Amino acid sequence: MEVLFNADDFGLTKGVNDGIIEAFVNGVVGSATLMMNGPAVEHAVKAAKRHPGLKVGIHLVLTWGKALCPDLHSIVDREGIFRWRSDFRKRTVPDLKETEKEWRTQMEAFLSTGLPLHHIDSHHHIHGWEPLRELTLRLAEDYRVPVRFVESLRTSPDYLLTEALWTDFYGKGVTSNIFDQLRMIPADKVEVMTHPAFVDTELQAISSYAEPRNAEREILCSLKIPDWVRIL
């Protein structure tokens, strides 16, 4: 089995960035996805350039923080903050033209860093929301990169980064027996979603998921890789 450990939220805080780099240098993390509206994006880009072996994708955002595109109306409030949150499925569908405009702005901001774009995923997996499915596939095609597996894209395997996504390495699911769990998945190529960090005050102030990131980092740096696994 091929396994890609991806670290989400690259660029959120310096502690998150440092934790991701630590889990890459001394652990199993092979890629990270950069959220272009994060407060520590410049710090993340510099760190990634010091470690060119780390594959970096984009963590498209529509449910946290401020938009990058200044010319938006319906998908942001008066301060430019996105109107959607993690419970987006209970809310109205965003304007697709404005969403595409913002996401392309984020994509172009990523490319302007000079980092090679590895793949696309999103904060809270919103790229897997059925109303945004065609937009996600269009971006993948236009930018010629694969997309994180989500159920709504299962029928478009040619666009997918892996055959499956493991999201249970999170919260109470952060345990060192992850390979035992992955072995039960009927897939040859799996992505594991992770959130390693050195928890800092900035993270505690802006994220409801903070302290478990320390445990994630420690476990990701101590895992023993079975002989049936190839880390990507």
Would you give an account of this structure?
There is one protein chain. The protein is of the alpha/beta class and 232 residues long. The chain has helices at 14-25, 41-50, 96-111, 133-143, 178-182, 201-206, 212-220, and strands at residues 2-10, 29-34, 55-60, 120-122, 164-166, 189-194, 230-231. Strands 1, 2, 3, 4, 5, 6 and 7 form a 7-stranded parallel beta sheet that branches. Helix 1 (14-25) packs parallel to helix 2 (41-50) and helix 1 (14-25) packs parallel to helix 7 (212-220). The longest helix is centred in the middle third of the chain and has 16 residues, at 96-111. The protein is globular. Keywords: Carbohydrate metabolism, Hydrolase, Magnesium, Metal-binding. Pfam families: YdjC (PF04794). InterPro entries: COD_ChbG_bac, Glyco_hydro/deAcase_b/a-brl, YdjC-like. GO terms for molecular function: deacetylase activity; hydrolase activity, acting on carbon-nitrogen (but not peptide) bonds, in linear amides; metal ion binding.
